[in-house]
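Standup, Tuesday
Yesterday: got the pipeline producing structure tokens again.
Today: sanity-check two examples.
Blockers: none.

Example 1:
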Amino acid sequence: MLVDAPAFDPEFTSIRAVIPTPRGGYLAMTGFPGLLTHVDGTPYLDPQQMTETLKGLRAVGARQFLVLTEEEELPNGAFSLISDISQQVGLEIHFAAIEDFNVPGEAFLRRWPEHRARFEQALDAGEAVALSCQYGAGRSGLIAAWLLMGAGLPAATAVALVREHFHEAIENQLQENWLLDRDKVS
């Protein structure tokens, strides 16, 4: 039985959605914490907004945090800064890159079983699992839906649930088709 998600403040964080799962716990989708853009389009990191987002993830029950961005997508020092602040606020951070607008590649899939086991254990304990990509829609939504599928939801239902909480999630047909194909594999 799904219950309402804990509240978060979207004004001060980059948290996009907190989704209840059938196995208990929640999936929290977020843009890369602290990633902002100057008027000229140049990206930069705001440590205060990063801290507020990471504290917000802890406030909704997250202890596990998976970053799906590639390091080269972000301003220099982003991974070391987020690692430091995650540790300070009590989040265990993991990095598993998926190319932007794409689906998991071989390197991600090789490491997925260890991540999946850790995340399913957290969900079973009623915790939230935080997922971050650059904006918090495509790759975060893709992995959120995949974890929902692991909790027993059919792909189409998982995609719909993720989009119900953040309509921009799973941002292209490639990602949606990849999830639908996982139903055929199971």
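Example 2:
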Amino acid sequence: MDRRLVGTIVVVLLGGLLGILNSTMAAVATDTLAELFDTSLSTIGWTATGFLLAVTATIPFTTWAVDRYGGKRLWVAGLVLFLAGSLAAGLAWDVGSLIAFRVVQGLGAGLLDPLVLILLARAAGPRRAGRVMGLMGVVLSLGPVLGPIAGGAILGAMSWRAMFLISVAVGVVALVLALRVIPADEPVEERPSRLDVVGLALLGPGFAAVVLALSQTGEQGTFGAWQVVLPLALGVALLVGYAVHARTPSPLIDLRLFRNRGFSASVTIMGLGGMGLFAGLFALPLYYQQAHGHGVLAAGLLMAPLGLGGAIAMPLAGRLSDRLGARGLAAAGAVVAVASVFALTRIGPGTPEVWPALAALTFGLGSGCFSAPTMGSLYRTLPGPMVAQGSSVLYMLNQLGAALGVALVALVVQTSADAMSGLRGVFWLSVGSNLLVLALVPLLPGRTRAPEPPVREQEFA
């Protein structure tokens, strides 16, 4: 890779890591913030829920805006908005202001998160999609693991405000580097002249409502509570409305993308993989805390092998997939992931920590081996003008899979006879999701001697 491309990749990944670290750091501060603001855990939970809903609702707008205003301009705008929200959150005076400023952060992250995929895919091109998506996977793997560790360390040594103010310092560096390194967008022949306002009003809130319903499932402990049923019904109605609306010319996201088998398989695999991975990310710390009595920081450190496995596997698998295709690597990775999570179903209170740590390491390796090739194959099947839409669909379904995984974890743990049987149930859930990934792998592109030709844009017209 040339130096300019490497510089762009590094700067974009720094911005992507910023949002992931901030959201996962804040997650470990829930108890601390509830005590400091003298409020309930359900109320303080809206600092995370509000952030997530803002991210989800903003993603469809990014699909349109990236071609209308250019990737670099939108990236800088997202960083500025995220920095403003971080600074304000660090200066919040009560729980209401903190929730509001976290929403501002989420709006900025909703611009940045899909842009990471869009900018990397456009910079790399189809021939290098696998290796660049593999580098993106390092951020996706390490971010959720490093965040709780960093959050626990900061809370142990400094004020909770430092979690947000540190993001400001890192974000300023990312902003300066972005202005200097990321190249200006080349002219796009057909920039969208009008925003699909109806589509935006249906799609963004629809996905946000479904994610809210899933997050409420974990809190209420049942799918039957009105706090779950009401937003779920609203979300489904909005998404059905969008499906009808998408038949009109120039919808926000063209649903005919799903006619392509490779695209449909790729986004489904990433959604299922996200569900299984987040189930493990939430269940393993609970196991270390409840079965072995470790604190938050120690449990976070014991989670490191999971992120380390993904960080090792994804760059290697992504690079290999550019030459060998996605199918064989993804199949091998799914088999390793299934075997690893199956091993976690056998652990108990007396199991030495080394064994679940090793299983988590191989789980990360397996997940990385199917995630990077899958993302790379997705971008090899899309024509350039459809990259933004494909990235948004991928990110939204991955968010949905993660939210579903977390909701099912909470539901299984709360309805089980005891904590250990609940955690084993969660690991069985992850086994099932990874088996579905394995079943879908044959739909991915196999070995190719040359880069796979992109799908013609006319197929979506």
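Quick observation on example 2: The CA atoms of residues 12 and 116 lie 6 Å apart. The chain has three domains: 1-184, 196-251, 256-461.
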